[in-house]
Write a structure and sequence with these properties.
Length: 329
C-alpha cells in the first residue's frame, strides 16, 4: 500500500490517480490531492522554496476553545473554506462538517439520549420525553443507566428494571443536576389521581362514617359515579404500573408491580362487571341491601398511594445524588 503524500491516507498502488516526479511515482486518494501535489511542486520550482514535509501533522490554531486545521497559505480560497483534502465529498469533509455544525449551532439545550434533538429553550424531548439539558453540560460519553437494586442491569437509555421494575438511574453523577421528567410525570399523575380518588373515597366509604350518601343518590347512580371517578385513576394514572407488571410476567421476574397490577386490575374489572350485570352474583355474595359489592375505591386508593411512594422515592434518590455532587465539588 502506498501513502498519499497530501493527506497521509493509505492508497492501493493499483489506483490510476498518480503522478511522477524525479523518477518516483506518487499515489493519491482523489484527484484533488493529486492537483494539490502538482501545484506544490510547481510553486516550489517557481519560488525555489523547499516542498513542505508531507508527513508533518497539520498546524492547529485555537479559536475560542475550538481547534481546527490551519490551511496552507498557498491553498485556494475554496479549499481553505472546506478544510478537507477533497472538496464537498472527500474523506476529510465529514469531520469538518461536524465541527462546523457544533461551532455554528445556536441551540442551548439538547437531548442526551436522542441525537439531533436541540432547542433554544427548556423543553421535553419529543422522542423519549426526557428534559433537554443545557449544552454546557453535554456528556462526553454515552450515559449508562443501571438499577440501584440490580447493578448487573445496564442499558444506554432510561427505562424500568426488568427484574424489580424500578426506574433506572444514570450510572455516573452529572456535574449539574438536571430536571427529572420522571419526577414531573409521577407528580402529575399523583396530583390528578388524588383529585379523583378523594371524592371517590367519600362516595364509597361515607356511609360507614355516618354520611347519608344513600339519601342523596341511589346505589346504582353511586356505582356509576364511582366508575367515572376510578377510570382515569386506574387506566391513566396507574398505566405505568400495568406496563411494569405485564413486563414482569413476560420476563418471569415477579415483583411489587406484578402484585399492584393484578390486584388493582382485578378489583376494577370485577366492579365493572357486577355494575353491568348486578344479577350475575349469587345472593350470598351480595351486600346487606342486595347490592353487589364494588371495589373501585380500593383500586384507586392503592394506585394513588403507590404514586405517592414513587414521588417520594424519586425525590430521595435526587437528594442522594445532590449529596454526592456536593462531596465531589
Amino acid at each position: 500500500m502506498a501513502v498519499d503524500p497530501i493527506c497521509q491516507m493509505q492508497v492501493d498502488e493499483s489506483s490510476m490517480i498518480r503522478a511522477e516526479r524525479a523518477g518516483e511515482t506518487f499515489y493519491f486518494c482523489c484527484e484533488h490531492c493529486r492537483r494539490k501535489f502538482l501545484q506544490q511542486h510547481a510553486d516550489a520550482q517557481a519560488t525555489g522554496k523547499p516542498l513542505p514535509d508531507a508527513g508533518a501533522p497539520p498546524q492547529l490554531v485555537s479559536l475560542g476553545g475550538l481547534s481546527m486545521s490551519q490551511p496552507d497559505a498557498g491553498a485556494p480560497a475554496n479549499e481553505a473554506a472546506h478544510g478537507g483534502c477533497c472538496h464537498g465529498g472527500g474523506h476529510g469533509d465529514s469531520g469538518h462538517a461536524a465541527t462546523s455544525r457544533a461551532r455554528k449551532s445556536s441551540a442551548k439545550y439538547f437531548c442526551p439520549m436522542c441525537e439531533g434533538v436541540e432547542s433554544d429553550r427548556p423543553a421535553d424531548c419529543p422522542k423519549c420525553g426526557m428534559a433537554l439539558e443545557p449544552t454546557g453540560v453535554q456528556p462526553t460519553a454515552t450515559t449508562v443507566f443501571t438499577c440501584p437494586m440490580h447493578p448487573e442491569i445496564e442499558q444506554d437509555e432510561p427505562g424500568a428494571c426488568p427484574i424489580c421494575g424500578m426506574d433506572l438511574e444514570p450510572k455516573t453523577i452529572a456535574a449539574e443536576e438536571a430536571d427529572s421528567p420522571e419526577l414531573r410525570d409521577m407528580t402529575r399523575r399523583f396530583a390528578i389521581s388524588a383529585v379523583f380518588t378523594v371524592p371517590l373515597l367519600i362516595l364509597a366509604m361515607g356511609p360507614m362514617v355516618g354520611l347519608p350518601i344513600g339519601r342523596w343518590i341511589n346505589h346504582e347512580t353511586a356505582g356509576w359515579l364511582q366508575l367515572f371517578l376510578a377510570t382515569p385513576v386506574v387506566l391513566w394514572a396507574g398505566w405505568p404500573f400495568f406496563e411494569r407488571g405485564g413486563r414482569s410476567l413476560v420476563t418471569r421476574n415477579l415483583n411489587m408491580f406484578t402484585l399492584i397490577a393484578i390486584g388493582t386490575g382485578v378489583a376494577y374489572l370485577f366492579s365493572f362487571a357486577v355494575l353491568l350485570f348486578p344479577n350475575a352474583l349469587p345472593p350470598s355474595l351480595r351486600e346487606a341491601g342486595g347490592h353487589p359489592p364494588l371495589y373501585f375505591e380500593a383500586a384507586a386508593v392503592i394506585i394513588t398511594l403507590v404514586l405517592l411512594g414513587q414521588v417520594l422515592e424519586i425525590r430521595a434518590r435526587r437528594r442522594t445524588g445532590q449529596a454526592i455532587r456536593e462531596l465531589m465539588s
